[in-house]
Amino acid sequence: MNTYDPSAYDKNLCLKPSFGLYLTLVFGIKDFLLIILPALASFKSKSTSLDYLTDLVQPEMFIADLMVVVVWLALFNRNPDSKVVWENIWSKGRLMLILAFGIHAAILLVEQLYALNAVANWQRALNLKLIYLLIINLIFLANLVTSKRIYDTFADWPKNKSLKIS
């Protein structure tokens, strides 16, 4: 494992998730967040200022979002006293994220190709929202595949303090 700056490690001497990994995790559950945020905002006021966010939700993405939610749960349970199941999920978390973002990209690509096929004029069929989301998904996917820091973060798990090295 590479040596990183001492501030990159937590109190259990494990590599902390980087800002890029947190950004990837948040973007991976964007469809859940786009449903929850307007609902939470409506509790405080009767304003519908966030209702436009629900138009950005793509329900077909929820299956891939569930994989990212499981990785979030493993991150929250990343401590020496947690169950072995969380360690197993965390060790496969990078692959789960790659699969989730791959599914996102495939769905977006199929939606755009379907729109292109349905219209004779391809310029009218281009949906910029889908294209931008596809590009962003591919950037996150490339980061997950190539980042050594993300690889090392998912390879690291806190050791139990009761174990003694002799």
Textual characterization of the structure:
The chain has one domain (15-40, 49-155). Helix content is 63%, strand content 0%. It has 8 helices and no strands. It has helices at residues 19-28, 30-44, 62-76, 84-91, 93-118, 122-125, 128-146, 148-155. Helix 3 (62-76) packs across helix 4, helix 3 (62-76) runs antiparallel to helix 5 (93-118) and helix 5 (93-118) packs antiparallel against helix 7 (128-146). It is globular, with a radius of gyration of 19 Å. The model has no long low-confidence stretch (mean pLDDT 84).
Total strands? 0
Largest sheet: none
Low-confidence stretches: none
Outline: globular
Rg from alpha-carbon coordinates: 19 Å
Strand content is under 5%
In percent, how helical is the residue content? 55-70%
Number of helices: 8
* H/E series: HHHHHHHH
- Estimate the mean pLDDT confidence: 84
- Number of domains in the coordinates? 1
Distance between the termini: 22 Å
Class from helix and strand fractions: mainly alpha
List the main descriptive attributes of the protein structure presented here.
166 residues, mainly alpha, 63% helix
Concise structural overview:
The protein has 166 residues and is an all-alpha fold.
Mind sketching the topology for me?
Blueprint: H1 19-28, H2 30-44, H3 62-76, H4 84-91, H5 93-118, H6 122-125, H7 128-146, H8 148-155
Helix pairs in contact: 3-4, 3-5, 5-7
